[in-house]
Amino acid sequence: MTSSEQASTQPGQHMAAEVAAQPEVLAGLVERRSGIAEVAAEIARRPPRFALLAARGSSDHAALYAKYLIEVLLGLPAGLVSPSTATLYDARPDLRDVLLVAVSQSGGSPDLLEVTQAARRQGALTVAVSNTTGSPLNEAAELAVDIGAGVENAVAATKTYSATLMALYLLIDAVRGGAAEHVRGIGELARQALDSSADAVGRAVDRYRFVDRIITTGRGYSYATAAEAALKLAETSYLAARAYSGADLLHGPVAAVDEETAVLAVTSAGKGGAAMHEVLDAVAQRGADVLAVGSAAEKVPAAVRVGLPETAEEVAPILEVLPVQRLALGLALARGGDPDRPRGLHKVTRTR
């Protein structure tokens, strides 16, 4: 984009458009799931002992979601890779009969590329999940999944994040022999989620526009949404945002919660949401101002509730993140920022 084109756009214009595009993007991925199913069939043909996931930034939160999917739906141990063990310390563990999934929207991060190359040399079955066909990461991995979200102009990842969640779900569901039955109507559900939550998100923007720090929290699958929420609020609104699993929040950090603390709690129908009741009782007793997001938001104590359509628990994060992205957009604009071009950030971050 040229400097004159940048000057002609309104703050947040790209992020708003990309948030709104997600129902179509998600529906399209489900329609094209046959390509993902082919990758899943190859994984099923060579069943791994365990799985590793490599990612950075928003993709790391998508990988966290996939970790829960793999452990719960496939019954396999799964872990998140520390890329520096390969890039800085030259560690070369035995990865025979191991599945390594590298998740990167751009497919161009040098550390993920090196991790994938090293893992393949060490015997792992490597899969790249990215939004860039023909990327170095796709070429390095044995198998590749294209999330197909299209070009994303805003720096903050929105449609690429939800599409990555969708692609990972379709992949893991297909490995277990599923037919994507829980996401067949995901495009319409996403549209409902955006439309039905708009008023509540507007109230949340008004209520929290002057807050300085916020804690985000969730359990189970929704912990990934809490982590992504903290990142979105930090990078677009420059808030001091910190994510905790609900369990970890009770193991010490709750001591820092008081009347000046805003808490964004992700709570959807299912075991993870049910486990959040104890957490929210604890922060409520300390006077925190709670914003609840999810299909079970109406069932918990909160100052503002953003309800969502109910789905199978394992696909709830695909919808949960939508109003969170709108919240980050709205707060950034209300605080005088431009979430399309947050200070000091670039679309592709190259680390090693």
TrEMBL record:
It comes from the Bacteria. SUPFAM superfamilies: SIS domain. Pfam families: SIS (PF01380). Residues 39-181, 204-342 form the SIS domain. GO terms for biological process: carbohydrate derivative metabolic process. One of its GO terms (molecular function) is carbohydrate derivative binding. Keywords: Repeat. This is Glutamine--fructose-6-phosphate transaminase.
